[in-house]
Design brief:
It is a single chain. This protein is an all-alpha fold. The protein folds into two domains: about 15-120, Serine Threonine Protein Phosphatase 5, Tetratricopeptide repeat, CATH 1.25.40.10; about 125-173, Serine Threonine Protein Phosphatase 5, Tetratricopeptide repeat. It contains ten helices and no strands. The protein has helices at about 5-10, 15-35, 40-50, 55-65, 70-85, 90-100, 105-115, 125-135, 140-155, 160-170. Helix 2 (about 15-35) runs antiparallel to helix 3, helix 3 (about 40-50) runs antiparallel to helix 4 (about 55-65) and helix 4 packs parallel to helix 6.
Length: about 170
């Protein structure tokens, strides 16, 4: 799991016991989500939020909703995450990704750009990859390549970004 327990437990003011309960529910929800038990994951993410609301729990609840095809609810959870912690980058990227799925490419761009500037984001290459996807779908090959290149620069092992960048460069020759 890419979420840091210490960051999770240090958020906001509140009893440590509530934060620990929230973390426990969050971990169990994530396990359920990864094992395809999405209804259980939703319940446990909500339990985590009820114990102590975090941007992570809202974002991952949104991610679970997206697995269920409930993209508008996923976007709502990401907005809640941003209100909880505007420095957490994941929900900005996720909103952009969900808008791409809804074919709202122009609306996705500002969210993805905000994700690239987030102060707290363990996977900063993701929004660059998603920006590349947007620009590629819009036919703006040069911007797409620049975005994929930025993703690879941030994470040299990010194979999908490298492969997509190379495919685009090859198709331009």
């Amino acid at each position: 799991m890419a979420i840091n327990q210490q960051d999770f437990l240090q958020q906001g003011e509140g009893p440590d016991a509530d934060k620990v309960t929230a973390w426990d529910c969050f971990q169990r929800a994530y396990d359920c989500q990864m094992n395809g038990r999405l209804d259980d994951a939703v319940t446990l993410y909500r339990d985590s939020i009820d114990a102590f609301p975090t941007a992570e729990a809202h974002t991952f609840l949104g991610w679970t909703y997206s697995f269920m095809g409930r993209l508008h609810e996923a976007i709502e959870e990401c907005h809640r995450a941003i209100r909880t912690d505007p420095d957490f980058g994941n929900p900005y990227n996720d909103i952009g990704a969900y808008l791409i799925e809804l074919d709202q490419l122009d609306d996705a761009i500002p969210w993805l750009e905000r994700a690239t500037r987030a102060k707290r984001y363990e996977s900063p290459a993701f929004p660059h990859m998603n920006l590349g996807r947007v620009y590629e779908r819009k036919g703006d090959w040069l911007r797409a390549i620049e975005s994929y290149k930025a993703a690879v620069t941030l994470d040299p092992d990010y194979a999908p970004a490298r492969k997509t960048m190379m495919r685009l460069i090859s198709s331009m020759n």
